[in-house]
């Protein structure tokens, strides 16, 4: 189980790297990278360091990765899903749609509800999957 958990940690790391550089599938924008001077880069460094700590000192690293993933999931929930579930102000929805306007959406954007784009849906699934796999590895 541990090798599968490590594999999915790397998959998440690679997927999240799209927040630093821009990922495209042909002409379709998945996510526009924010560069190394961004909060996303800081999160990438923290997550990568937690994985490294897990490899070097598994007993400490497991808990560190778990903590990072839980905090990351909570942040992602309040940045995306909270507004999808409970609604948001028109200004918030317009700003969100403008920020991710070029990115791939599998559920059409709406003016009355915040809808996460494809990249963020996959990101959130990977975070949850990594949490489950790590928990099972304990």
UniProtKB/TrEMBL annotation:
- Transmembrane domains' residue ranges: 6-26, 38-57, 63-88, 118-135
Q: Which terms are listed as keywords in the entry?
A: Membrane, Transmembrane, Transmembrane helix
Designated name of the protein: Uncharacterized protein
UniProt source species: Candidatus Enterenecus faecium
């Amino acid at each position: 189980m541990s090798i599968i958990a490590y594999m999915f940690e790397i998959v998440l790391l690679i997927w999240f790297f799209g927040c630093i550089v821009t990922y495209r599938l042909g002409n379709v924008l998945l996510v526009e990278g924010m560069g190394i001077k961004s909060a996303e880069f800081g999160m990438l460094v923290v997550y990568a360091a937690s994985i490294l700590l897990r490899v070097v000192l598994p007993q400490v690293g497991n808990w560190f990765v778990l903590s990072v993933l839980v905090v990351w999931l909570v942040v992602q929930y309040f940045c995306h899903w909270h507004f999808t579930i409970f609604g948001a102000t028109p200004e918030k929805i317009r700003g969100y749609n403008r920020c991710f306007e070029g990115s791939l959406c599998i559920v059409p954007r709406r003016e009355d509800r915040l809808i996460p784009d494809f990249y963020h849906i996959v990101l959130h699934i990977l975070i949850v999957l990594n949490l489950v796999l790590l928990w099972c590895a304990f």
